[in-house]
Specification:
single chain; binds ligand NA7; alpha/beta; binds flavin-adenine dinucleotide
């Protein structure tokens, strides 16, 4: 433990608000609550510094797939003008530099306690305060608890037989240490999601040999990264007000207008031209939502987009057997991927592809991996690009208890639920940034939306002189049912991925997002406020009552 990092903050233990997480969400939450509402706030993060996702995911090739000009905060106009950038997409070191700059600019670090993991939090019904336990000996308390834990922050490491016997180096991409050297080594990568595609493409030219263990092939389109001309950047900076207005009323918040044209309403030739233009321009969300209106909802439209990508794979990959292994046959219905030359990697002599669905990993050996057919791959380094226990995973690992001592993991035993993606009945005064059933978008604008809404709600409760703000059970049920209905109208539920919890063995397959878009989400939030915080009870500390109807949904 780095005690100096902990010592930077005072020995105070009682706060108005405690925030967990110092990524995009937690940093802005601290600024709002401390600098605008004047609250006494402490932020905890188990990381050694700010950055969240971008502190942990330092693997080679880590890149945002949101364009740079929108992968940032919008709340400070001077910051938007001052921060310099020049690539269409922003890589991990530059996102981390940006968040460090934000922390310095708003003097945030003095209220952040790093290298401190929150282990649990319990709502004390007698006084309406949250009691927060950490991996230090100290217990803290606060009236408000904001969990900005991240929706992709609890790493998923598959429990292969023999994993502990591996004698080489092993890394998960979401917990990547500095100074890893891969040049000249025999490296294995397990996992071909967004992260796998990035790390594979980045390291293939430098390693001695790369073996990719692929369970499910992926649809991916080019990202289209490159230097952005100065005039374009000047144009963006001059028009930021209008750009953000547009983004925050759009569906995906990725900076393009979602198409309103159904794929099957145009000729096959026109479809091909539209797909080809999007392929040349780059961007996964742009390909899925900017080309036609119904790729995520209509089977024929989905198949047309899928078939276009399959043909591209066949053109790019020279060895037909490898191309076939790389070709997905299922729906194009996961968070859409983009890459910097992924499929072409398999034309390199130093890259081997193993299909571990057909021939699963039997065990990890001290010197490599053995597959079920007996094939052994000798490896110096094993990289797990196996993703995250997404969305609720960071919550269910905590001893997080609301009224009556109810554990969040019991409340969510059939899958996570929330009201507005931010609140949970029986967990009063607790607000989640990017909690379950929040918007499925480019995330910084959704994070800002939630942070601002939470801050307003806390200000409202304080102005009213009240102790407790709590979502009703009816509001939570109705919002969760609404999210399910919207998600059921898409094809996403048919793609087995983290966005439905399908990547973690034993995890209930559940709706995790509000898929109607950011514009519509913001409208709902405004209506809730206009109707005097519809769906919330804002009260003083109530006498303790028995909660016999324990959540069973
Ligand atoms: P995070 O950045 O995840 O921060 C959460 C913080 O909480 C972490 O620092 C963690 O250490 C801390 N924490 C969690 N639990 C505890 C605990 N118990 N005690 C103490 N601290 C705790 N989104 C996009 O919109 N566009 C993209 O292109 C994009 N690319 C991504 C690429 C990768 C590889 C990954 C992993 C995610 C990507 N995301 C992307 C999603 C990304 O997570 C969000 O955009 C954003 O960074 C989330 O910010 P956050 O503050 O909500 O959470
Ligand atoms: P993902 O998208 O969940 O991808 C994880 C990958 O790891 C995926 O290919 C999985 O295959 C594979 N995986 C997981 N467990 C195993 C086991 N046991 N054996 C073999 N392969 C396995 O995570 P990412 O980190 O790539 O991306 C997450 C998000 O971060 C992404 O959407 C962006 O928003 C950034 P599967 O497909 O499940 O068969």
């Amino acid at each position: 433990m780095n005690t100096s990092a902990r010592a930077r903050t005072s020995s105070q233990t009682e706060f108005d608000a405690i925030v967990i997480g110092a990524g995009f969400g937690g940093l802005y939450m601290l600024h709002k609550l401390r600098d605008e509402l004047g609250l006494n706030v402490r932020v905890f993060d188990k990381a050694g510094d700010v950055g969240g996702t971008w502190y942990w995911n330092r693997y080679p090739g880590a890149l945002s797939d949101t364009e740079t000009y929108l992968y940032c905060y919008s709340f400070d106009k001077a910051l938007l003008q001052d921060w310099d950038w020049n690539t269409r997409y922003v890589n991990q070191p530059n996102i981390l530099a940006y968040l460090n700059h934000v922390a310095d600019r708003f003097d945030l670090r003095r209220d952040i306690q790093f290298e401190t993991a929150v282990t649990g939090a319990r709502f004390d019904e007698t006084n309406g305060r949250w009691i927060v336990t950490t991996d230090t000996d100290v217990t803290y308390s606060a009236k408000y608890l904001v969990t900005a834990l991240g929706l992709l922050s609890a790493t998923n490491v598959p429990q292969f037989n023999g994993i502990e016997t591996f004698a080489g180096e092993q890394y998960h991409t979401g917990n990547w240490p500095p100074d890893v050297r891969l040049a000249g080594k025999r490296v294995g990568v397990i996992g071909t999601g967004s992260t796998g595609l990035q790390v594979i493409t980045a390291i293939a030219p430098e390693v001695k040999h790369l073996t990719v263990f692929q369970r499910t092939p992926q649809y991916s389109v080019p990202v289209g990264n490159g230097i952005v001309p100065d005039e374009e950047i000047a144009g963006i900076k001059a028009n930021y007000d209008a750009i953000w207005k547009d983004v925050k009323t759009s569906m995906t918040a990725f900076g393009f207008h979602e198409s309103t044209v159904p794929a099957m309403s145009v000729s096959a030739g026109e479809r091909e031209r539209v797909f080809e233009r999007a392929w040349q321009r780059g961007g996964g969300f742009r390909f899925m939502f900017g080309t036609f209106s119904d790729i995520a909802t209509d089977e024929a439209a989905n198949e047309a987009a899928a078939e276009f990508i399959r043909k591209k794979i066949a053109q790019i990959v020279k060895d037909p057997a490898t191309a076939e292994k790389l070709t997905p046959r299922d729906y194009y219905a996961k968070r859409p991927l983009c890459d910097s030359g992924y499929y072409a990697v398999y034309n390199r002599d130093n890259v081997t592809l193993e299909d571990v669905k057909a021939n699963p990993v039997a065990e990890v050996l001290p010197h490599g991996i053995r597959l079920e057919d007996g094939t052994e791959h000798e490896l110096d380094v094993l990289i797990y690009a196996t993703g995250f226990d997404g969305v609720d995973g960071s919550y269910t690992k905590l001893d997080l208890r609301g009224r009556g001592g109810e554990l969040i993991r019991d409340h969510w035993k059939h899958g996570p639920t929330s009201y507005l993606g931010m609140t949970v009945n029986k967990f009063p005064n607790m607000f989640m940034v990017l909690g379950p059933n929040g918007p499925f978008t480019n995330l910084p604008p959704s994070i800002e939306t939630q942070v601002e809404w939470i801050s307003d709600c806390i200000a409202h409760t304080e102005r009213a002189g009240q102790d407790i703000v709590e979502a009703t059970r009816a509001a939570e049920d109705s919002w969760s049912a609404n999210c399910k209905e919207i998600a059921d109208a898409t094809l996403f539920g048919k793609g087995n991925s983290w966005i439905f919890g399908a990547n973690i063995p034993g995890k209930p397959h559940a709706v995790m997002f509000y898929m109607a878009g950011l514009g519509s989400y913001r409208e709902v939030l405004s209506e809730v406020v206009a109707e005097d915080y519809r769906g919330f009870e804002i009260t003083d500390v109530a006498p303790v009552v028995e909660h016999a109807e324990a959540a069973d949904h």
